[in-house]
Amino acid sequence: MEISAEIGKKNEERFAALRRDRQPWWEHWRELADYFLPRRYIWLLSNDEYRRVKSKNNFILDATGTTAARTLASGMMNGITSPGRPWFRLRLNGFPDDESLPHRVWLDEVTRRMLLVLAESNFYQAMAVTYLDLGVFGTSAMTIYEDFDQVIHCQSHPLGEYYLAQDSRQRTNILAREFIYTVAQCVEEFGIDNVSERVRTAHKTGGARLQDTVPVRHLIEPNIGEEKPVGSHFKYREFYWESGYATNDTNVSLTTQGQFMRDGKVQVLRVRGYYGRPFISPRWEITGNDVYGSSPGMDALADVIQLQQETKEKGKSLNLMNRPPMVADIQLQNRPIALVPGGITFSANAANVGMKPAYTVQPPIREMAMDIQDVRIRIREFFHNDLFRVISQLDTVRSATEVDALREEKLVLLGPVLGRYETEALDPGLDRVYDIMSRAGLLPPPPAEIADSEIEIQYVSILSTAQRAISVAPTERLLGFTGNAAGLRPEIVDNLDWDTVLRDYGTSLGSPSKYFVPMDKVISDRQARAQQQQAMEGAAMAQQGVEGAKLLSETEVGGGRNALQELLGN
Questions:
Q1: Is residue 227 over pLDDT 70?
Q2: Helix or strand or coil: residue 384?
Q3: In the chain, is it the N or the C terminus that has fewer CB atoms within a 10 Å radius of its CB?
Q4: Which of 262, 226, 259, 270 is nearest to 9 (CA)?
């Protein structure tokens, strides 16, 4: 495929500008990778550095930082997008959410199918890496493509491979990448007719040449401007092109500015359009107009470096205690010395000590261990491990109420992060999945009455539900006060609309709508119950009237036997 030389030139210029904007973050990311994930992010290393360090980790002596980051990633994975339970549901703004309504049945079926597609694809595997990147580096990126076998295919991109840019509303709208393919991968992905002549020659030669490296550049951007290589109905466009070529034994520079030209045009590997943004790029926290985010890893980096230094010093101290430097009698030179426990070394001069430590080493091992433990605790707190281990970290048995209060207190710290993640990752990701499934005909046709309605996403994950549970505390306090006050003034309960309170409370907790009976049925049941109660009360009154009449008929009001007895008695 071919594009004009003007577009090719602009794409190369865009890469140079994105690289310049990312440069201030580079050294910080390098240091984070060294102390947290040294073997995973080779794109933050030059090729020579990668060859030197790929087989050994020279920075981490205590892996508390790495373990804390992985605990945060696992906790967020289970708490936000758990593969084992539904974590979102769909609803329509302005429509009742009763389970029996046709649109509610349709929304539940759409949700079920979307969850099935996510489970059958590699979505959750890619999301797990995304959470880890987010906690350590503050920024992550993942593309979501259509796939014939699994409907969607997700790819989480390592930091250092990609560049980002954002629009005026601070939403990322450009993703650019530089990565390496082998000749075999390049031909398999883009086809033999779309690769350069050098790649075709290497592929035809076969053998070891199939493993030759091909630097590739990738750009996704909004489909705007006068010249559109894809249709105007697409909102985004994508370019792949070769940025250079090297054999497997050549030091490949990822910043190569070369490009393949043919007949005055840039030869690209692929040009494609998208109806929506095909990637997500969540950030932990941003400052001002920064494109890349800050992270707990950045906050904890100083403590992680301190931990490595203190661990190293503690190890040296223990080594000096176990094997101190020695001073020996010169007569022992070149003679066998027994250094094992209980060993005996014989000397000709018994008056001399023979061998003794050069100095006494008594490092404060206990104090050093305590300080190291304090540093470990701080690192885990930076990564919110105490949130995901509330129960296991309790030193005493607590009640369920106390545990809930502790969890809610810690959840407040993740509130802004969770909101940003839902906006920057989950919303566009689910929109992308829904769009792919809709165009593939994998969704049931919607009811006619909601054809033009906007679908909203409600997150019902563990963390989202827990966050909403915090908001029901005022309702619980109101109900508790009302219950206490009703003991003095029972009529006070008439001030509350109990149906609305109950349904709003259930919605805040994320309770499924099927738990609630539709209001029209509630009203009809109440009317039937009232009529039944009225009928029962009428029957009771009638029975009471009959018994009263019978009693009245048997009552002596004067004369008769009673009067005769009174007369005879007198």
A1: yes
A2: coil
A3: C
A4: 259
Of the candidates 446, 460, 570, 549, the one whose C-alpha atom is nearest the C-alpha of residue 508 is 460
Please give the Cα distance from 198 to 500 (Å, whole number).
71
How many Cα atoms within 13 Å fall on the side-chain side of residue 548?
6
Exposure string of 539-550, with b = 16+ CB inside 10 Å and e = fewer, is eeeeeeeeeeee
DSSP 435-470: HHHHHTT-SPPPPGGGTTPPEEEEE-SHHHHHHHHH
CA quadruple 158, 160, 162, 168: dihedral positive or negative?
positive
As a whole number, the mean pLDDT across the chain is: 80
DSSP label at residue 84: T
Distance CA 195, CA 193 (A): 6
Give the residue carrying structure tokens 């580096």: 137
Q: Which element (helix H / strand E) includes 406?
A: helix 400-421
Q: Looking at the predicted structure, is the pLDDT value of residue 146 above 90?
A: yes
What was the pLDDT predicted at 49?
A: 55
Give me the amino acid identity at 415: G
Which of 162-166, 247-251, 437-441, 458-462 is predicted with the least confidence, judged by mean pLDDT?
A: 247-251
Q: If you average pLDDT over residues 12-29, what whole number do you get?
A: 90
Q: Could you tell me the two tokens for 198?
A: 């050098």
Q: Which helix (H) or strand (E) holds 321?
A: helix 296-322
502 CB-side CA count, 13 A = 9
**Residue 8 in contact with residue 269, Cβ under 8 Å?**
no
Interatomic CA distance for residues 516 and 494, integer angstroms: 22
pTM of the model: 0.78
Give SS3 for 273.
Answer: strand
pLDDT for the residue 251:
35
Question: How far is 159 from 420, CA to CA, in rounded Å?
Answer: 20
DSSP string over 211-229: G-EEEEEEEEEE--SS--S
Q: Is the pLDDT of residue 47 over 60?
A: no
User: Identity (one letter) of the amino acid at 537?
Assistant: E
Q: Residue 444 corresponds to which tokens in the numbers above? A: 């049931």
**Residues of the chain with pLDDT > 70: what percent?**
74
